User: Fold this.
Amino acid sequence: MRLIGMLDSPYVRRTALTLAALDIAFVHESLSVFRHYKEFAAINPVVKAPTAVNDDGVVLLDSTLIIDYALKVLSNGKTLGPTEPKLAALDIRLTGLGLAACEKAVQTVYERQLRPAEKQHAPWLDRVAGQLKAALSAVEADIAGADWLLGPPLSEAGITLAVAGTFITEMVPDVVTLSDYPRLAALTTAAEATALFRAWPYQ
Ligand SMILES: N[C@@H](CCC(=O)N[C@@H](CS)C(=O)NCC(=O)O)C(=O)O
Assistant:
C-alpha cells in the first residue's frame, strides 16, 4: 500500500503510526496538499491527505477509513487497544475527541495561513478555539486512569491524542498551552519518546 501526505498533518501521521503499529507494510510518499498540488491531484483529484492507494490501485481517503480498511483487510487479525466493551467505548470516544481537536487546530491554521489578514473572521476563530479547548478539557477528564492508551497494545486513542498534542504544540501554541492539560501533555511526551513515534516524527 502507498500512503500519501506529509507527517505535519495529524491525520497522515496517525495513519502512518497506526499502520506501523499493526505491522502493515506501506510506502510513504511525502507530498504536500499545497506545495505539490498537481502531483497530489494526479493520484487523488480530491487532494486530501492522507490518501492511500491499495495494492489493487484503489484510492482511499480519510484517515479513519484508511485505518478501518487496514484493520479489516490488512492486519491479519492484529488489533489495537482494549477489547473489553467499556474500555473499547472510551477508547473510541477519546479518539473522536482527539480528531475533533485536530480538526479545530487545522481550521485555525487554515484561517490564519490561507486567508488574507483583513479577511480573517475573529468570531469564527473564537468559536473554533472554544471547541478546541472543550475537546481538550473532555480528554483531560476522561483520560484520568486510562492506563491502556500507550499499551501494549497501543490504542488508537493513544496514537491520536499524542499526535493531536504535538500538532497543537507546534501549530497553535498561542491558542492552547498543552501544559494546561497535564495528563494529555504527559501522554504526548511519553508517546513521542517511543521508538514508533520517533520513527514517524512530526515534520
Ligand atoms: N477527516 C479527514 C481530514 C483530512 C484533512 O483535512 N487533511 C488535510 C491535511 S491536514 C487536507 O487534506 N487539507 C487539504 C484540503 O482540505 O483541501 C481525515 O481524517 O483524513
Residues 9, 11, 33, 47-50, 62-64, 106 surround glutathione (CB under 6 Å). Helices lie at 10-21, 37-43, 63-74, 85-114, 122-142, 156-171, 182-192, 195-199. The longest strand covers residues 2-4. Residues 32 and 43 are 12 Å apart (CA to CA).
